Amino acid sequence: MKLYNFALYHETLLRSHCPSLMMMMTAWKRCCSKVLQSVIGSTGQQRTAANMCMSSPGPGDILNSDRRQVSIPEKRNHTTVIGRNANVCRIHGVVFRLNYGTRKSQVDAMSRTKQNWRSIAPCQRLISSQEIFQQRRGYLNCRQSSFLDSPLTRCFHSSSKRYRKDRKQPKERAEVTESTEEDRNPDIDLDSDVTYSEDEDEEYDSELDEEDLAEELYEEQVTLVTPKGGHKVVVVQPNVKWGAKKQHLTTGELMLAESVALVETLPHWKVVHTVLMSTKTPDKKTVFGKGNFQALTEKIKAMKDVTAVFLSVEALTGRQQKQMEEAWGVSVFDRYTVVLQIFKDHARTKEARMQIALAEIPYLKMRISEEVANLDQQRGGVRTRGGGGETFRELRKRVLKQKETAIKKALVRLKKKRDLLRSGRTKKEIPVVSVVGYTNSGKTTLIKALTGEERIQPQDQLFATLDVTAHAGQLPSKMTALYVDTVGFLSQLPHHLIASFNATLEDVRLSDLIVHIRDVSHPDTVNQKHNVLQVLSNLKLPQHLLDNMIEANNKIDLLDGESSVPEEDDSTVINISALKGTGLDRLRDVVEERLFEATDTVKTTLRIPMAGQQLSQLYKTATVQGVQVTEDAEHLDVDVIVGKAAFAKFMHAFKGKVRQA
Ligand SMILES: Nc1nc2c(ncn2[C@@H]2O[C@H](COP(=O)(O)OP(=O)(O)OP(=O)(O)O)[C@@H](O)[C@H]2O)c(=O)[nH]1
Ligand SMILES: [Mg+2]
């Protein structure tokens, strides 16, 4: 090994003067690689071992100007990378950190001399540094495919217009890439070494902008893989009976029922057992106390048909998850991953998809930090500097950051579009009513009933709606209002999941009125209301919106006696059944009344002279709803909806000639 390392140190020299020794070394190294490949799993220790051994250049190596390298086992169509920061790669699903040991002179010599390229890698091709970005993304995101198989088509450089242009023109791509490469490094002569496989050509075809990128990234993030026969899940619900973490408004049984509903929302996931387990310390590493954890482990191990455990806590750290998986012998999921997966399954629009991708980033960041901690603990290999996991973390964090920026940018663009639409609505003075509430409370059903919109399809499912949509409906005065359907809320939902929906929840913030719809037939309705109010207060809504909010007690048709939920006198609470249509007329009246208050508008009837400019003025400044000739045939009674300021101005301008009828 020492001889080998010595040889590596003088590799360039050896390549030209002693090819047979170099070949011997290469064969030795390949042999090491193959042995490693066969034994390497995914643990940090093995990765560290791989880092140590796969540290020397040879055929098929990736080398870059950062003086870092990685060895790739022999394979057809080797990819050779020249550029910056290609310091990590993935081989057959295993991540390798690149080694710092290669000397700059070696890399430079190889980069500059075509001869060397040929001798080292006759079947390799050179790719641009933009493509390296893609490979890094490939390493980070492609969980199944190997580094070499990952597509080389995407680029993180949003500024790299040229690259995108290349991809639009696949036939001319070879020349363009050539010149691009040469521009950057005139010493490299690429004429005969640049080859492209047909597969790669296809990948270059499709147009890709940041939104597409974000969408693709969304697809590639943590996805719960359902086994062929579906998942048979045991739901474990921690029940905090004492202390500050105790949930006062709900019970362990109700929380368990919600957890079961969550799991069963995922297609082919079936709950086969449930466990309600007391804990005093839900924040502890094992969530439960020692004795309870032991008892739980025995219980789960005795359940032979189980393929996964859903532990109903907000989010598990990577270490917790690993520890539990080792103890229980099956996959373990938390609320965050399950809810995120439901969101992914249900999101239809690009905006919702991007927001979900954004929501996942903090979770991934947390996991990366932990992985790094593990790797750093396990380092100790020769010729590694800065900690085994350091580069790994930097790279992944950088990729995540780029991704975050790309998504945020795309969201800002969409927000601008939304703002335009919103300003259009404001110009037309169409009032906006946001319908919010706990998931599955009947928001979509209510909007369908109020607007008569046929296309809306309510579903008996958690998080059926993830795309915020607006639908026009008529108020009793024939005035049009826009009802906004929103994403439902859920208890113990990590706040950044909700926060990631900020762009769409902006509509709620800017609406004129909020209707909070509750499922009063649900046994946990009080806790649900509490949760919704808490989320609304976290959204920092304007106080007047919260003060003016209407509460609609939905699904009263499911209650024993329809009067079992008392309505309050001040009409802030209205009993309805969105499905049966009960109480909707009253709700419309109250909505209109509140909208007038919120928008400083009055609805009135004005008596004006038949001859004069008053009527034309009213048409200009108010919404005229009806005109009747009075009995004396000299006046008109005009029903109008008009802003308070415009009304005062009108009355002042025609003082003595007009009055309220
Ligand atoms: N019996 C009864 N069922 C209702 C009523 N309103 C809604 N539902 C049912 O409740 C279920 C959920 O309704 P949705 O309108 O999809 O609820 P949502 O609040 O939009 O749910 P998410 O979008 O998932 O948050 C559907 O099966 C509806 O048919 C009602 O007044 N009475
Ligand atoms: Mg809905």
Q: What is the CATH homology-level superfamily of the largest domain?
A: GTPase HflX, N-terminal domain
**Distance between the terminal alpha carbons, to the nearest Å?**
102 Å
Main pleated sheet: 6 strands, mixed
Broad structural category:
alpha/beta
Bound molecules: guanosine-5'-triphosphate, magnesium ion
Mean pLDDT: 67
Compact overview of the structure:
This protein is α/β, with parallel strands linked by helices and 661 residues long. Helices cover 46% and strands 16% of the residues.
Description of the structure:
There is one protein chain. The chain starts with a helix and ends with a strand. Strand 1 and strand 2 form a beta hairpin. Strands 12-13-11-14-15-16 form a 6-stranded mixed β-sheet, with helices on both faces. It is of the alpha/beta class and 661 residues long. The radius of gyration is 33 Å and the shape is elongated. It contains 25 helices and 20 strands. Helix content is 46%, strand content 16%. Helix 16 packs antiparallel against helix 17. It has 4 domains: 207 residues, no CATH class; 214 residues, GTPase HflX, N-terminal domain (Rossmann fold), CATH 3.40.50; 170 residues, 3-Layer(aba) Sandwich (Rossmann fold), CATH 3.40.50; 60 residues, Alpha-Beta Plaits (2-Layer Sandwich), CATH 3.30.70.240. Bound molecules: guanosine-5'-triphosphate (GTP) and magnesium ion. The site of magnesium ion has 5 residues, from helix 18.
